[in-house]
Amino acid sequence: MSPRVLIxxxxxxxxxxxxxLARRGILPEIIEKRxxxxxxxxxxxxLPSSIEIFRRSGTDTPVLDxxxxxxxxxxxxxxxxxxxxxxxxxxxxxxxxxAQDRTERHLVETLERLGGSVxxxxxxxxxxxxxxxxxxxxxxxxxxxxxxIGADGVHSAVRAALGFDFPxxxxxxQWSIADVDAPDWHGRGRFMGYRLDGGNVAVVVPLExxxxxxxxxxxxxxxxxxxxxxxxxxxxxxxxxxxxxxxxRYQSARVFLAGxxxxxxxxxxxxxxxxxxxxxxxxxxxxxxGTTEGYTEARHAAGxxxxxxxxxGRRFIQAKGPVARAGVLAAMRTVNAVPALRRAxxxxxxxx
Length: 352
Fold this sequence. Notes:
This protein is of the alpha/beta class. The protein has 10 helices and 19 strands. Its cofactor is FAD.
């Protein structure tokens, strides 16, 4: 008899867990507190590791049909380009850009094809783990499940119900984001990074043919760009604080955490969504095989690695002070001048 599994959260992590369970014959219940599918996008980059996971369920085909394949990236010192990276010298060197809401849509369609669905507007009100079940209350209705997966983000209700600490720290800067349409932007197919005064940075990433994500370590992402961007529509804009955190344990006996509920870090490197997708795929496999005891050890190590990698990259590009900034600029110029170094950096970017 298949276990009764409840997944809390229908972002990429929760949807991947649902799809991976469903294709193994375990049809979970998945709830989402939002009233309907998101029309906004947080994550952008899709790494080869995630495409491989999507391939198992056939989700890779619609994702790749719509996604923008990055040809490379250009890093600037102010407005001057200093480092050109290409991602087309090896068939495995691929990063795709797609708005998170579109990735979620394709995962939902796969889940529906497998016989599942998302229950929107459903909030987890209570969770209590017993010896033989997990008792929950969703929208005032009591239910029992064998297992629960908390894929409900940084402010996870599942994590809070478990009483798990979320140790770490918040970065001091206020960051900002803008999701825009700019059909005449010159950086199609490439992410564009800009080092600004005071250790600040701004990045433009393709989402679709004419849709882009702008992120900056200043309060107004579009205003932070040192070059003009011909924006026709601003779909979303806002400011946020970056937290760098990770739980010590990803599981109790019957309740598991995945994605941002278990870890969070800066967007440098674009690994957050991909890490959550990998969490979900491994957890689904372990549930199907009955080997969930090793989930924390495997995924905590993976999360710690990504957090360390993201923080090294962030500190590098946000170097402050004339000596440190000059050192970063010299390093970028050296990498740009040596093809082998450019390839090594590119491989680091696409590693899952």
